[in-house]
Amino acid sequence: MFRRSARRARPARMVTAAAAALAATSALTATAIEPASAHTPGHPAARHVLLLSVDGLHQSDLAWYIARHPQSALARLAGGGVEYTHARTTIPSDSFPGMVGQLTGGNPGTTGVYYDDGYDAALLPAGTTRCAGAKSGAEVDLTEDLDKNKDSIDAGQGLTGLPGSILKMTPHAASLIDPTKLPVDPKSCAPVSPHAYLRVNTVFNVARKAGLRTAWSDKHVAYDILNGPSGNGIQDLFAPEINSTATGYPAGVDWTKDNAATEQYDGYKAQAVLNEIDGYDHGGTHKVGTPAVFGMNFQSVSTAQKLAASDGLAGGYQAKGVPGPLLEKNLAFVDKEVGAFTVELRKRHLDGSTTVVLSAKHGQSPTDPKALTRVDDGPLLDGLNAAWKKAHPGSGDLVAHAVDDDAMLIWLTDRSKAATDFAKAYLLAQSGTGVGIDGNAKPFTAGGLKTLYAGADAARYFHVKPGDSRVPDLFGITQYGVVYTGGKKIAEHGGAHADDLDVPLVVSGPVTPHDVRIAAPVETTQIAPTILRLLGLDPRALDAVRAEHTPALPAR
User: Fold this and answer.
1) Tally: H helices and E strands in the chain
2) What is the rounded average pLDDT for all residues in the chain?
């Protein structure tokens, strides 16, 4: 089957031109972010790294907010460290490859993670129990669909008093995954958990091996993937389900459909971080010590960008790059929470030993509301299947799985050159009528695509061998402003436009220079080796760092 997903250029396995140029300079050795072990006598060590990832946040949003609020927590954070003004996230610019990249140092071709809802031609479908002779090819779903109960914020744990009791949620998020929903390994005939699906280790794995405490908070229990291949990289993984029913809001609304609900949801995770700063577990119950590596993901900026309106405020952007009232409100919300973290660090005398890293898994496109063209991808995929069957009587659907947000990722049942060429030609020949920001008809051509990589070209784009079981058979970069949706959202992510990729990156703390801005291009995958350097650990302990030669971030 395929999914018509409305949830969601540069090659992915990159020693990019930018990284290669940086690696060729002494800046990445002599002036890279300092390791804790390299401090001069009396210089405070980085014993803790707090990573904050704000979905949808652009560097331009951060600059816009700081310019108008020079005394804000975000302004102080940037002024107290190094701000990288040309940082880019992974391609595809989706939550899972973006977050995995930050914590492994690798891009999708290396990590094997292309999207939150992908496909693997080598695995067997979920629920397979008789594996001998079974036909391979399986959806790899890393969304709320894996939860034991995706309608509950506790993912099916069965807590009473929700949502107020959510901080009592288990730190072992993987225990709330329904194994019958996982793809199956044809060799062992056993389900493949998210952490086992990841091809490389994570910062958490390296930190645990060094005897350091780890914690993280994110939006699905499927973020078990960050536990890495060992399955136990994160000691305290707090993962309340964001796509569950939002208690106290209108029927049918999840925590992303009302921006006030998203802020409430983010507030639970922020409280978990405050508890961890205080030396407790995420629930504030057990004294365990402040983690060496910890942090959270914010969602409220993302929903403020996607929703046309919420809570009586217009969402998205007023003009190109100019946040509207709902988005401005959410930038202030994030600023307030960041301020609370920094105050708590000072209160606990941890400000002299904690480095804060601020970035984003992905941006959101378009930031120019006039460019928006909403295209329903369902008829495009139905038409492709129909055309294939007509040309090949007796055959089944050509599309095995598809995820289309403001990029197009398609996996085919026939991976031959003839089939991928057929699909490419069909899609690029399609024109039709979409919907603009004003709700009026808006024409599109070439299936809404600017570029479409097919077959071996798609594999080369991601720097993997043709035939790799996970790489999409087609990867399409949309025309600017095209969002594949049959609904009303006004922005999405996943693609390769600047609006998708250009995210903030700030490293701020006692071991970093203050008030430094670096305009040289960097990548969010460089966060992972930088975290390890800050903690005095070897970045080359990361598999992806060795594979891609991912450098730590430069400090000057």
Assistant:
1) 16, 25
2) 93
User: H helices of 366-451, where?
Assistant: 377-391, 417-428
Under a CB-based contact definition with an 8 Å cutoff, are residues 200 and 547 in contact?
yes
Contacts of 419 (CB under 8 A, 6+ apart): 388, 398, 412, 473
- Reference 218, options 265, 260, 181, 254; nearest CA is 265
Q: Which pair of tokens denotes residue 422?
A: 């057929």
Whether 24 has a pLDDT exceeding 50, the answer reads: no
Four-CA torsion 381, 385, 388, 389, nearest 10 degrees: -160
Instruction: Quote the CA–CA distance of 7 and 166 in Å, as a whole number.
Output: 25
Amino acid of residue 263: E
5 has a pLDDT exceeding 70: no
- Give the pLDDT confidence score for residue 54 in this predicted structure: 98
Say what the pLDDT of residue 35 is.
Answer: 61
pLDDT of 36 above 80: no
H/E stretch holding 459: helix 456-461
| Pairing mode, strands 516-518 and 138-141 | unpaired
Q: Are 118 and 194 in contact (CB under 8 A)?
A: no
> In angstroms, what CA-CA distances link 382 with 2, 432, 448?
11, 14, 16
**Beta carbons of 277 and 350 less than 8 angstroms apart:** yes
- Taking the CB of residue 437, how many other CB atoms lie within 10 A of it? 19
Q: What are the pLDDT digits (tens) for 123-151?
A: 999 999 999 999 999 999 999 999 999 99
Question: In this structure, what token pair is assigned to residue 398?
Answer: 């050509």
Distances (CA, A) of 326 to 127, 313, 446, 455: 42, 5, 33, 41
Residues whose CB is less than 8 angstroms from the CB of residue 364 and which lie 6 or more positions away in sequence, other chains included: 56, 58, 302, 305, 306, 491, 492, 493, 499, 500
Q: How many other C-beta atoms can be found within 10 angstroms of the C-beta atom of residue 26?
A: 9
How far is Cα 223 from Cα 385, in angstroms, rounded to an integer?
A: 33
Burial of 536 (0-12, 13-18, 19+ CB in 10 A): middle
Question: Long-range contact list for 178-181, CB < 8 A, 24+ apart?
Answer: 178/146, 178/147, 178/148, 180/126, 180/127, 181/126, 181/127, 181/141, 181/145, 181/146
How does DSSP assign 235-296, residue by residue? Answer: SEEE---TTSB-TTS-TT-BTTTSHHHHHHHHHHHHHHHHHHHTTB-TTS-SB----SEEEE
